[in-house]
Backbone:
């Protein structure tokens, strides 16, 4: 009687296969995109989404100032308050990113588009068209607010971003940089294919943390700058309001968000995702 011997098959000691796939980097310039309807559909989606975003949020700001103005028989504790304004911005981002993510990626913010362009998630052509559409949508959205609230729009500042009294421009710039860093870092993390593969059992929508990031940043920076972190939002309000105060400090709401987006892209792609180490390893293997 012979013993039955089980022969174990050899198991690989290292697993090189990943359970996720990183999409290939977008081309820097892809003229073929200009012939595709999907690009123009995405641009239209960004325009409409930014229009709706500015319409609802700026109208909320104006409504709050009307209801809380004690000089106009308002109640200082009336209206939605700063907390309600923050919820309006965060909630609208959650809704609109959810609606447009499958069409345009749901950027609704030139700073987000800039960060994703630096990470090679979108091409230069798409990034430029998105930014133009976002700014035009913002102008139209605030234009609707002025049309519907013409009696109060100019009196209560038009929803324009300006520095609050007692704060320097340097403080405002820093607030915009850090606030945008939080937002764009959240965008990268929420859409990271590695995280999606690892946490596939967790039913969390990507728009949810992005909306919460906008909400939290507004709570922190409304008392400083009114919270920009979105150059299109600041630009649309400044164009329609068109007062010197808004334009004098307007540069803060472009420079700050773009620096914050740049920092978030570098941090996520080259430190957290080890892009610099991978590039160095590739260089050494080819040497």
Residues:
């Amino acid at each position: 009687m012979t013993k039955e011997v089980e022969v174990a098959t050899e198991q690989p000691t290292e697993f090189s296969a990943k359970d996720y796939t990183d999409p290939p980097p977008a081309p820097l310039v892809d003229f073929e995109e200009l012939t595709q309807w999907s690009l123009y559909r995405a641009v239209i989606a960004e325009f409409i989404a930014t229009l709706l975003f500015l319409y609802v949020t700026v109208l909320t700001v104006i409504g709050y100032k009307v209801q809380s103005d004690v000089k106009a028989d308002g109640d200082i504790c009336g209206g939605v308050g700063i907390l309600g304004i923050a919820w309006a911005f965060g909630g609208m981002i959650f809704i609109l990113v959810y609606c447009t993510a499958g069409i345009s990626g749901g950027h609704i913010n030139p700073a987000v588009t800039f960060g994703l362009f630096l990470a090679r998630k979108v091409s230069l052509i798409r990034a430029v068209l998105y930014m133009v559409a976002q700014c035009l949508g913002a102008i139209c959205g605030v234009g609707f607010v002025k049309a519907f609230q013409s009696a109060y729009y100019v009196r209560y500042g038009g929803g324009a971003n300006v520095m609050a009294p007692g704060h320097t421009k340097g403080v405002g710039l820093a607030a915009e940089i850090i606030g945008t860093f939080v937002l764009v870092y959240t965008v990268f993390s929420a859409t990271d294919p590695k995280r999606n593969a690892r946490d596939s059992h967790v039913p969390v929508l990507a728009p949810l943390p992005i909306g919460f990031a906008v909400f939290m940043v507004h709570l922190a920076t409304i008392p400083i700058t009114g919270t920009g972190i979105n150059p299109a939002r600041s630009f649309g309000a400044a164009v329609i309001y068109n007062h010197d105060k808004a334009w004098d400090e307007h540069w803060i709401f472009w420079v700050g968000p773009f620096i914050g987006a740049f920092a978030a892209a570098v941090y996520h792609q080259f430190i957290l995702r080890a892009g610099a180490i991978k590039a160095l390893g590739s260089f050494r293997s080819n040497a």
